[in-house]
Amino acid sequence: MTDHRRAVQPEVPRPPVRAQLDPKRTRRYRLFSAAVLVAGLGVAVAVLLGHADHPQPEQLLIAGPLLAVGFLLSEQLSIDFDVRQVSWTISFAEIPLVLGLVTVPFEVVLAAYLVAGLGVQISRHKLRHLSYHVGIMCLEVAIPYAAYYLLRNDFTAMPVWAAASLAVLTSPLVSTALGLGAMHVLGGELRMPAAARLGLRSLVVCLMNVTVGLVAFVLVNTAPWGWLLAGLLAASMVALYRAYSGLLREQRDLETLSDVSLNVARSGQDVMNKASVLTNVLPPEDPADWQAIVERIRDQLNAKRVVLHLKLDTDDVRQLVAGVPLPEDTVPDRDDPILQLAGNHVRYFKLSDAADDVQEALRRRGVYEVLVVPLRGASQPLGAMEVHDRLSRWRGFGSADVRLLRTLSSHLATAMDNRRLVGRLRHHAYHDPLTGLLNRTGFREVAGEPVRGEDNCVVMRIDLDVMSGVADALGYAWGDRMVLAASRRLRDALGNEVPLARLEGGSFAALLVDRTHAQAQEVGEKLRAGLSMPYPVDKLTVEASALIGYVSNTTEDGDDTLDVDTLLQRADVAVQAAHSGSDPVRGYAPSMGQIFLRRFQLVTQFRSALETGQVTVHYQPKIALPSRQVVGVEALVRWRHPEFGPLDPDEFVPAVEATGLVDALTSFVMEQGLQRVRSWLDRGLRMSTAVNLSVRNLADANFPDLVAEALRRYDVPPQLLTFELTESGVMSDPERALPVLRRLHAMGVTLAVDDFGTGYSSLAYLRQLPVDEVKIDKSFVLGMGTDLSDMAVVRAIVELGHSLGLTVVAEGVEEDSAREQLVSMGCDVAQGYLISRPLSEERFEAWLRARTIRARGLRDETVLTLVS
């Protein structure tokens, strides 16, 4: 029999709160219950009047109690399942019903059924729905009796067992129809195919129960020891039903676990929208998502109510309720005894045997039993979950419910942990960890749609112009402080609604929507003024400046395929134009694009230029002071482009370094220089060659091996090869650069610090560097004749270098007076236009022949001395 009396209640169907608070549905349900009661009593009275079989005393005293016990046992061996949030029960009630139908009068069976059914309802505190329960119980007994009497009177030849079977089959049909009617009244819907399957399932189970009951009746009445066979048959049926019930429960539990985990994971998939990307906060929890999850848990446990205490942060706990709302004056908090006693496992509290404070907490909740389990993540508590009052079981929550809740809480906590982890990872993927602003990926995500769909969108790039100097002077931690301060100034100036990103270092980008060129210029000026104000860094005050370039998605070059990356690239071109011009705020013009095109062409054509001879090496001589002997040369790269002509190294070398081709460039210059040294050695001349190193060379752990191989190949002593490096290049990544320098120094290669005196930490780090030479920056040498401070700097560097045992080289010597001053200071080597400009290989050889004379050195070697 399918028994829907206990579950068809106003609080059960979804959405629970709306259904309970909807007065129209409440009135409809009360009218429906009254109609069921009237119909049940009416049919019962009609059956009594039409077939008044007076029961015998033994039937009342023996059969009645036995049938009542049978109905109670059938309730205990029931199988519960949920359909559209309404609990349905498959029980063995058809067995005592069919036995009563063929043995005792109607009123005995009806009385036994009412006593058993009402006893169950009273034990479950369901007296609010007494009218509906009484009505449906009367119908479930009266209609089968009416059908049985009708079949026996109209079909006299029909066997008793056949008439009883057909009559009892009407009971599940009545139950199913009334259950569907109650579901419709309470707001639930069930499609016809599902309703048909439900009715068919009820009929099949009913037929099996009726068959077992009739077979047992026949065995007991006709066969010797038939009661034993009937008992074995009943035990087998009970075991079969219990096994089926367990399998059904396990299947539903697994489905629930899967659904809850998937729902938690999917609930955070759509939070990375524009609004959440714009803010530097994790996506908020969506109450609607969690409400559906809590409803699913309540459905599976068939509980009166489920309360989820969801911990969002340290102080914020959100409570979600599925099922019957909590009483208005009951809001459990962290001091609630039930939550405090939850511990680390599922705890079960019952009103009849709980402590006084727990009993009071149960009464405040309006329940008589509760399961409570904490939700604990990998690193922090996530909340707790309460389950109140099992609806469809006489004995309340059982061990299967406890096991399910324990596993469910573990899965839920893991799913919540994973969801929050994914949310954090997704959030961090779109935001800069230092400033909390968008990163390049986040800016591309936010700006993509406006750039494609709206006119007059302006992408603005803002570059702090002192970041590398601050980082070199004070360290990168202080540079980060400046970036953070600048980001706050930008955010305050632009407001929270404007997408703002930190691209890298001290570079920022902003998206301005619906702004004209003039408005963008005005915003740029405002931002630059704010960023150029002094920055208080600890006890220092750092002066700063900013360069700003901007570009609109409405261009004049007819390009309709602009995307965010293209606009950022063009804004960067505008920043470069601002850097080279007098206006620190520049808008992009189509003509500026030629700069990028030229740079792109140079980078892509550089390798082929090496192979085709467009790139050559020029040599600038270095002489010893005061002997004026030629001690070596500096190898300098030159490129004569077939289209652009001679290129300044300052134009193509930075582009080559940025694109990773500097290894090829360094190898080319080193090879050419070593080849020259070898040819000079073959002629008896001992002159060294100096090659400039890049930051990327110093970061390559294999670079010393390449140098050693080249020295072996050309058979050049390592002392005749000098590598010149800038201090900022070493200090940008000293952990990787210093091991490379130490290996080169151990090989015997000469190491020189180029542009010495321009760095901020030269004195502090010079003793740590394995170097042999320092080269005074030409800006100081050129200013010695007119600026006493420059002369003092040069003198100090010479003295410092000598005190550390280093050779001092002065570059930029262009006047005789400067050379004489260097001689008087004790400078070791000079290099500059006074001696010679950088010369090609052929012209340098001609210069040697024309400007030097041969002499025998101290070690009986040929030396070249510069003539006047």
TrEMBL record:
The keyword Transmembrane applies. Keywords: Membrane, Transmembrane, Transmembrane helix. InterPro entries: Cyclic-di-GMP_PDE-like, EAL_dom, EAL_sf, GAF, GAF-like_dom_sf, GGDEF_dom, Nucleotide_cyclase, Rev_trsase/Diguanyl_cyclase. The keyword Membrane applies. SUPFAM superfamilies: EAL domain-like (SSF141868), GAF domain-like (SSF55781), Nucleotide cyclase (SSF55073). GO terms for molecular function: cyclic-guanylate-specific phosphodiesterase activity. PROSITE patterns: EAL (PS50883), GGDEF (PS50887). NCBIfam families: GGDEF (TIGR00254). This is Diguanylate cyclase (GGDEF)-like protein. It comes from Kutzneria buriramensis.
